[in-house]
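Sat 14:20. Reprocessing the chain from the morning session after the first attempt stalled halfway. Input below, unchanged.
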Amino acid sequence: MRKRPGGNSSRPPVVVLNGMNKTIRRASVFTLLLVFALLARATWVQFYEGQALADDKDNRRNVIRTYAGPLGNIIVAGESVTGSARTKGSDLAYKRTYTDGELYAAVTGYASQAYAPTQLEGIYEDLLNGTDSSLKTVMDTVTGERADPGNVVTTIDPAVQKAGYRALGDNKGAAVAIDPRTGRILAVVSTPSYDPSSLTDANTAGSAWKKLTKDKDKPLTNRALRQPLPPGSTFKLVVAAAALEDGLYSSVDDPTDSPDPYTLPGTVTPLSNENPNAPCENASIRVALQYSCNNVFGKMAVDLGQDKVRAMAEKFGFNDEKQDVPVRAYASVYPKDMDEAQTGLSGIGQFDVTATPLQMAMVSAAIANGGRLVSPHMVSQTTDSGGDVLEDYDDSATTKEIISSSTAEQLQSAMQTVVEKGTGTNARIDGVTVGGKTGTAQHGENNSKTPYAWFTSYGKSDSTGDEVAVAVMVEQSDAARSEVSGNGLAAPVAQAMMKAALKN
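Finished this time. C-alpha cells:
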C-alpha cells in the first residue's frame, strides 16, 4: 500500500511547532515580567529615590536653585537687615548679604552657599528661597517655576537690640528682652558676635568657618538661647514663688524659719551668705531677696522638697525640650533625684540647675504680667513677596497662668525693694518702676573660675504703663574677680535695655 505523500511525515513537524510555541510563550512572559520590573524600578527611582536625591542637602542643583535669584528678607522694625548681591563667575547667581550683621547675628543666623543655614535663616529657608508651598500661585504650580520669595517680620526692637549689644561691649555674655504683655521678644543679644556675611560666599566661607570654630570665645554660640548656665541667685525668685503658692509662707513679709548659717542636711557644710553682716537669720522673703540670703532659700527649697520646686520651675519653662521662639532654645534644667543637701543648693540656683537668659527673662515677664506667661516669640509675621500675611504669630501666642496675681504682686514688690535699696541698685531708672534680682553663680570646680554675673528684671513706665522684662548674663569680663557681681556687670546692661524699650 502506498503512503500518501506527506501523510505520516507531516506529524513530527507539528510536535516541534507545539514545543516551540510553549518556549516562545514562556520567554514572552519572562520578558514581560522583566519589562514590568524595569518599569516598577524606574517609577520607584523617579518618584521616590529621585525625590530623595532632589532633597539631598549635598545635591548642588538645590544650592544652584536656591541662589538662582535674590532671597526674601528678614525684617526688623520695617527695614530689611538682610539682602542679596549678584555674584560673578559662578553658577550660584546670588549670595546673601547682611546689614549690621554682628548686631543681629543671634537673630538672623546665616544663609551660606557652603553650609546649612541657621536661626531664622534655617527655620524659614523654604519661605525665603521661594520653595515654600504657601507661596505658589496656580501658574507657579503649572509651570514648576519657583515662586517669588517671602519675608520674615521679626518682633525685634532695634533700639533695645543696640542698647544691649553696646552695653555688653567686649564682655562675653548674652541678654534677652521681652514685652511681658504680648510675649514679643524685643532683643536677643549674644557676645562676642560674628558677621554672617563672612560665611555666605562658597569661595571664602571655608576659611571664615575655620577661624570662627577655632575661636576660644565661640562666637557662633547663641548664648541667649542655647547656652544654659547656673543662674545663681536669680533662681531664688522661682523658689519664692513656690513657697508662696504652696502656702509655706503667706506673705513676702512673714519671717522665715532660717538659721544663719544654715547647715545643709546630712553634711557639715554651712550655707553662708556673701555679706556676713546681712540680716539673713529668719529673714522674710523680701529681705532675703534684698540681701540675697542663701541660708533662707537653701532651707526653703529643702522645706518645700525638690518635687514642689521642680513643679514651679517647670511651670516657668524649665525642663522644656521644645521651647521654640521659633528658634529652638536649649532646655533650662531643674534636676531630678537629688538628696536634701543637693536640693538646698538647687534653691540658690547651684548644683545642676541651669538656665538661659531667655528662661530667666520669662520668669521676670510672668511676674511682671500678674503671673501670666505669654509664649515668647521673635517673629511677628511671615508674608509673601507682596506683603500679604501668611502666618501671624502675635495672634497665635498662648497665655498660661504660672502663679496667682497675689503672688505676682508680692514678688513685684519684693523685686522693687532689691532695686531700690538692695543688691540691684544699678538698674534704677528715673520715671520707671524697676524690679530685679541679682545673681552670682559659681563657675568651675570649687568656684575656681570667674563666676557668672546675672540680673533678671522688669521695668514699667510710670507715664505710659509700657513694660519690659530683661535678663542678662555676663559669662566673662575684664573685671577683677572681686568686682564680679550681678549688680556690677549685668544690671547696667539691663538698665540700658529697659531705658531703650521704655524711651517714649
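The mean pLDDT is 91.
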